[in-house]
Design goal:
The complex is a heterotrimer. Chain A is an alpha/beta fold. Chain A is built from twelve helices and twelve strands. In chain A, the strands form three sheets. Chain A has a six-stranded parallel beta sheet with strand order 2-1-3-4-5-11, sandwiched between helices. In chain A, strands 7-6-8-9 form a four-stranded parallel beta sheet, sandwiched between helices. A two-stranded antiparallel sheet of chain A has the order 10-12. Chain A is elongated. Chain C is of the alpha/beta class. Chain C has a six-stranded mixed beta sheet, with helices on both faces. Classes of the chains: A alpha/beta, B mainly alpha, C alpha/beta. Chains in contact: A-B, B-C. At the A-B interface, α1, β2, α3 and α4 of A face α3, β1, α7, α8 and α9 of B. Chain A: InterPro entries: Bact_Solute-Bind_Prot2, Peripla_BP_I, SBP_2_dom.
Amino acid sequence: MRKFFGTSVVAISAAAMLALAGCGSGRDGDSGSGGEAAKGFPANSLIGVALPAKTSENWVLAGDLFSNGLKEAGFQGDVQYAGASTTVADQQAQITAMVTKGAKVIVIGATDAAQLSTQVAAAHTAGVKVIAYDRLITNTPDLDYYVAFDNFKVGQLQGQALLDGMKAKKPNGPYNIELFSGSPDDNNAGVFFNGAMDVLKPEIDKGNVVVASGQKDVKQTAIQGWKAEGAQARMDQLLTSTYGNKELDGVLSPNDTLARAILTSVKGAGKPTPVVTGQDSEVESVKSIVKGEQYMTINKDTRNLVKETINMVKALQAGDKPQVNDTKSYNNGSKVVDTYLLPPVAVTKANAAEAYANDPKLAPLTK
Amino acid sequence: MSRLKDLQKNLFGGTTSNARQFGMIFTLVAIVVLFQILTDGLTLRSDNLIALFQQNSYILILAIGMLMVIVAGHIDLSVGSVAAFAGILVAKSMTEWDLPWPAAIVFGLAIGAVIGAWQGFWVAYIGVPAFIVTLAGMLLFRGGNQFIGNASTVPVPEGFREIGSGFLPEFGPNTGYNNATLLLGLAAALAVVWREIQARKTRRAMDADPAPMWISILRMAIMVGVIAFAALRFASGRVGTSFPISGIILLVLVIAYSFYTRNTAGGRHIYAVGGNSRAAELSGVKLKRVNFFVMMNMSVLAALAGMIFVARSAASGPQDGNGWELDAIAAVFIGGAAVAGGIGTISGSIVGGLVMAVLNNGLQLMGVGTDRVQIIKGLVLLLAVAIDVYNKSQGRFSIIGSLMRPFRREDSASPPDAEREPAKAAVSG
Amino acid sequence: MSDVPILLEMRSITKEFPGVKALSDVNLVVRAGEIHAICGENGAGKSTLMKVLSGVYPHGTYDGKIIYQGSESKFSDIRASENAGIVIIHQELALIPGMSIAENIFLGNEPRKRGAIDWKAANRMALDLMARVGLEEDPDTLIKDIGVGKQQLVEIAKAFAKDVKLLILDEPTAALNEADSKHLLDLLRGFRSRGITSIMISHKLNEIEAIADQITILRDGRTVETLDVKADGVDEDRIVRGMVGRELSSRFPDHTPKIGEVFFEVRDWNVRHPISAERQVCKNESFVVRRGEIVGFAGLMGAGRTELAMSVFGRSYGVYESGTIIKDGKEIVLKSVADAIDNGLAYVSEDRKAIGLNLLDDIKTSTVAAKLSKISHHGVLNEVEEYQAAEAYRKELRTKAPTVDESVSKLSGGNQQKVVLAKWMFTDPDLLILDEPTRGIDVGAKYEIYGIIQRLADQGKGVIVISSELPELIGLCDRIYTVFEGAITGEIARADATPETLMKQMTSTKKMATR
C-alpha cells in the first residue's frame, strides 16, 4: 500500500512536469525591444493613456480629448484615470496592464512623477514607447519623450507683462513691486519664479524696479499649498508693514487663484489696484481681466498639448522620429529627455477675445 | 460509500471550514477562467502573472496581519499610514543618512515594531478600542509621513528596490526557463507530497481512516499540477524576470503565519480571544499579551509592506498607503473571516485578496476604468459577505456548506437548549 | 376572599421545550386587587409561567388557557399583553442609562403633538407618574445618575404610563438594599389599596410572608399548592416545605466518601466590587477543603458565591483586598488565571455559553484549551495528542457526539457541560470548583455529572460545588457552607443538612455553626 502510494506520487508529479514542460516555453530571449528606431507599428495599434485621478477639470478634458483624438487618428485608445484614493498603486497597475495588453505607446500624466520608474522600465523592455505628458517622470533612463508647456517661459511672460503693465500706467519708474511664488513642494513653482526673475532681475539691479519689502528670495515669497488665504494674509501683512505711505505698482503672482486673493487684500486696504499677473485662465480671473482688475493671465491650452502628443504618437507609428524642440533642458535625474515644449500665451484685456476664441467656455466672457 | 461520495467528502476535507475554503478557491478559479476567456488569454500569460504578484504582494502581506487582528476581534485602520510613515523614514535613512539598504530594512521593521508597541499598548493595556486607536494612528502617522517627507518624493537606491521589483536570479544551464523558479516549484511539489503523507500518518495515529488512497493521489495530482503550471509560467517570463522576490517574501510569511495560527499555542490563543475573550481569560489565556501581540505584529507587517511598495515604486511618495487598510480588510472578509472575530484563516485571506487582485487586474486588462472597477469590487465584497450571512440566517452554513450538506454525516447529537444563542455572523464567499 | 372577582386564571398550562417539560399542568388563580406571590426553586418554572402570561411565548406554543378579565386571551406578543394592561418588570431592568427619567418612562410610547414629541406634556405626565410611585426627582435626571432603588421605581412608573391592571414583578428587591426594599413593599401595599393587582416572584420568603395575600408554589414545573397567607397561617417554614419537599434519594449515585485531611484553605478573604469600590462582595470569608471531599456552597442568587470562587481562581473577579490561600501547607499567591491553573485549581463557570466555552470551537479544541502546554512541544501543538486526549475524555465521560471534531455549539446542555468538565479535568487539578454544574441540564445528564463529580473526589481531589438547588447540595456534598450577602454564615455537615436549616442560614446574617 505504502509503496504503491509513493510510486504513484512520483509518477504523477513527473508526468505533470513533463507534460507541461513539453509544451515548450514561450520565453522570448531579449524581447523585441530596446532597440533603436523601431520601424513603426500598425495603424490600429493600442495606445495607452494613464492619467491621474479625476480631481481637476483639466484632466477630464485631456482624457476626453485623448479618447476622441486617438480614435480619429485610427488608433485603439485606452484612457485610464487613477482611482480617487489609491492613486499611485492604481496608475502603476494600469501601466503594467497596458504593457501586457500590447500597447505600442503609453502616454503618462503621472500621479507621482518619481514612483513610476519600475513600470516605465517594464514598458521599455517590452518595446513600448513612453511619453510623459505635462509632468516629467523622474529617476528613469527609460522615458522616451516629454510633452509640456514651457514653464520657464510662463514665468518670463509673467515678468514681462508685469513690466509692460506698470509702464502703461505710469511711464517712468521706479516702480514698487512685491513678489509671490507657489507652493515650496511643487517643482513647477520654482520654475515659474525663476522665469519671472529672469526678466525682472536686470530691472531690479538697475533700480528701475524696487521690491519695497525687501522679500526677494523664493522661500520668503512662497505660499504653502497654493492656498488663497495664505496669499491674502501675506499681502495684508505687506500692506501694513511697507505700504503705509507708499504706492504699490505691481505684484508678481504665479497663478490666478493667488492673484485674486492679492487683489481682494489690496481692495480691502483701500489701495488703488496694482498690476497683478496670473496663470491658468480661470473663469473668475478672465472675468476680472475683462473688468480691468487683474492685469494678465497665461493660457495653456490643453487642446494643443493633447494635439501635440497625438502627433508624436502618429510619428512613432510611421516609424519616424517625433518632432522635439528641446534636447538639453529636461534632465529627469537619469537622462536628458527629448522634449517638445509648447509656448504658453500671455493674455491681457487687449488680446483676450482673440486668445480664447476657440474656447467654448471662456469665449463668451470676452464679448 | 460510493466513490463519488468519497470524493466529495474527502477531496477538500469534510469539515465545514474546509468546505468554505474550497468555496473560496472555487470562486478564485472561476474568476481566473472567466478573465482568461474575456481577455483572450492575457490573464494567465507569464508577464501578467508576474505583475499580478508584484502588484499585490504588499496588500496580501497586510492581509496576513489583518486576519490575525480581525480574528482577535479588533480592526486596524492605520496600516496604510504606518506603511507610508515607515516607507518615508526608510527612504530618508538611505538617501540622507547613508544607511546601507539591509540596515535600512531592519530599521524599517524596528519602526513598525515601535509603532505597533504604541498601538498595542493603548489597545491591550488601557483598553481603548482598536478602532479608535488605529483611527488615531491613521491620522498620526499620515501626518508624520507628511511632516517628515514634506509631501516630496524620496528615491531609494538600486539594492533596496530588489525587495519590491527584483526576481529570482538566472543561473545554471539554459533550459529555456528560469532555473531558480523551476527549483522552487519542485520544492513546493515535494512539500505538498510530504504534507499529504504526513496527514495520512496523522489520520492513522488518530485511529481514523485516512481518505482512500486514490483520493489522496488525485488531490496531490491536482495540487502538483497547479504548482507545476504556475512554476512553468513564472519561469518562462521574459529573461530577467521570473518569480518575484516580493512573492518569495509573501510565500515565506504565508507559510510561517499559517503554521503559527494553526499549529501553535500562541496562534490558538488568538482564536480563543476572538471567539470568547472571557472564556479565554478564564482558561488562563493572557488576554493583554495576545492583544498587544496582534496589534504590534500588524504594524511590523505594515512597515514591511510599505517598504516593499517603496522598493517597487523606486521612491517613497506622499500618496503611499492611501486606502490600503480597506483592501486588506476586504481581503480578510472575502476570505471568510467573521466580523465578530474568532473565525478566519490565513490561506482564506490570501485567496480573498487574490480574488480582488485578479478582479482588478482582469478589469484593467479589459480597459474598464477605475470608477467602474471600484463599483464592481464594492459589490463583490458586499455580495460575498451577504450570501454567507443570508445562508446562515436560513440555517445553512454557507453556499458551499449547503452544497456539501448531503454528503456530511447527519448530526446525531440531541438538539441544543431551548434558548439558542444567535450564531456569530461569519462570512465567506 | 373568594367573593372577590377573579382577574386572571391560568388553566392547566403546559409548556415544552425540546427534551424538557418546563411547565406541566400548572394552574394559577389571581383575584383582583391582591398581591399574589409565586414561589419555587430556580428552575421550578416561575419565569416560564410569566413568559407564557406576557406573550413572550405566544399563544399556540403552549397548551392550556389564559382567562383574563373574564374572557380567554390569546396574546401573540408582549405588546398584546401590555395593551391588555399586563406589564412585567424584569429582574434586569430594561432602562436606557444615558436617557432621562421622562424619556425612559415614555420610550416607545411618546406623547406626540403634530408628529413631534411633546416634551412639555411628557415632563408633566412624568411628574404625575413619578408622584404615584413616590419618586422625587427631576424628570430630566439621567437614569445612570440615580440608584437601583429609584430605577426600579422608574420601571414601575413606566408600567403606569401604559395603564397597568396587572403588575408582575420578577425578583423586585433582589438588587435593592433594605431601605429601598421597604419603600418598594410599602408602595405595593399602596397599589393594593388602590385596587391594582400584583404578581410578585421572590426568593425572599420574609418579604413574601409580610406582603402577600396568596402564595402559589411551583416545583419541577408543577403547581404544588396555593396558600392563603392569613387563612392558612403561613410562615416561612411552611413555604420552604412546599418548595423543597420531594424525594431526594434516587437522584444521586451511591457513594461512600473517602475523605483525607485539609489540603486547601482560604483565610479572611476580602474582595471589593470591580466597579463600585465601596461595595464589598466578599467579607472576611474563610473555608477549608479536604482531599476527597465534596464541599457545597449554598446561598441565594447574588449572595456572592460565584464572586468568591472567581476571586480565589486567580483574581478573575473583583478587586482583591486581603486574605490568604494555603495549599498543601504552603501559602500560594494566585494573581492570574494562569497562576491558578498552574497551582492545580480549576473553575467550571456558572454560565457555560457566555464564559465557559468558545462556541466556535469543536470538542477537541475546547478540551485542551486550558492546558495547551500538555499537548505542545516548544509551543507547537501536536494534533495527534490533542485528538487522543479529547477522544479519551469523550469516551470516559460518555459525551454524546459523533466525533471530537463536532462543534460544541451543536451539543445539548448536558454534553456541553461534559466538555467543560473534560477541559478542566485535562488540567489535572487538585481542586475543582464547579459553579452551578447542573443548571439547564435534564435529569438523566445530571445523574451522570454527579457520578463524575464523585469519581473526581475519589481520586483524591477536592471538589467545591456551588448550587442554588438545595436538594442537589444535600444529596451530593459532604459538607455545606452557607453564604449570605458576601459572608459565610454557616457550615453544616451532611448529616445535619436539611433544606429548612440551609434556607434559614442562607437568608440571615446570624452565624449558626452546627458542626
